[in-house]
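Schema walkthrough. Field components (list of strings):
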Amino acid sequence: MRTPGLIDPHVHMREPGGEHKEDWESGTRAALAGGVTMVLAMPNTKPSVTDSDTLATALSAARTKAVCDYAQFLGAGSGNLTKAATLAPFTAGLKMYLDQTFGTLKLNNMEDWLNHFRNWPSSSPLCVHAEGPSLATAILLAELTNRPVHLCHISLRSEILLIKAAKERGIPVTCEVTPHHLFLSQDDVSTIGPGRSEVRPMLASRADVQALWDNLEYIDCFATDHAPHTLQEKDGENPPPGFPGLESALPLYLTAAAEGRLTIDDIITRSVTNPRRIFHLPEQPDTFVEIDPQARWTFSAANTYTRCGWSPFEGYTMTGRVISVTLRGKVVYQDGKITTKSGSGQNIRPALNGIQ
Ligand code: NCD
Ligand code: ZN
Ligand code: ZN
Ligand code: ZN
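Field assembly_structure (string):
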């Protein structure tokens, strides 16, 4: 069976500054192994991507290393309220952190929230990490400023019900859900372990997970929020939040399809069609994934490309497997091997100062 290349609108490539966890090479290799041919990278790196210099640093690394297509988000800060907009064409969009998570980009001042919503061009994507009451505020700001907002990794029954109500009223909101919030709950914490199960938003109750499945029609995108941290970090003193996800996502969706909980069309709508529309992404010609939907196999982090070395889905029996990936006419992944060279991925946005 053949599907289009998947688009993952929420990944952390960790470069610059976190290359021991992942870099543009290992992260985009993991993407191809998971059937993902385009990634949108988050700005909570070290330093954060908040201006033209840091954007250029991230894009230069991507240019020489990436093996799938990509774009880079800009982070909203209190120091780039007006300047950010000038960089919009060169970015995947603007990412705003309204709550605390990994990194230093949390915006504490609500006035900054309003000003970023006002100043960022409404033709360019605006994404928020917003949980609970902050999510409600983000929806209000979309209404007040009459611009689209994309709500990252929603996880709760109360959140999906609020989004449903906002959509029914015509407020321009879209949202994404991660595989871990669809396939894991608080009940899995003891199996995964306390440090390893740290993630933002936290794993939710089984009732929350069920509410996401019951309201699938209001979920626009599946996004992995691929957030690699090493095993040493996850099992150490202050475990940072985040799960790897690129290589387990499509197998999990295909397994759900084999069980009759999703259709292939549900997967493609949320992993290709909707992300392409919401994030204004170009089509990738001659790009597709060859899948064996019947293959039964055991997922193991030992066989992954991500540098982090672990997975919350270790030992899961999957039904459905990626056989090969073709990107712009070239076989780039086949039978477990990457068959393209570093830097063959393309920035899908215009060149910034010649960095394409
Ligand atoms: C992400 C990370 O590690 O960068 N962690 C996470 O738990 N999701 C940050 C984020 O997406 O909130
Ligand atoms: Zn987040
Ligand atoms: Zn997102
Ligand atoms: Zn994230």
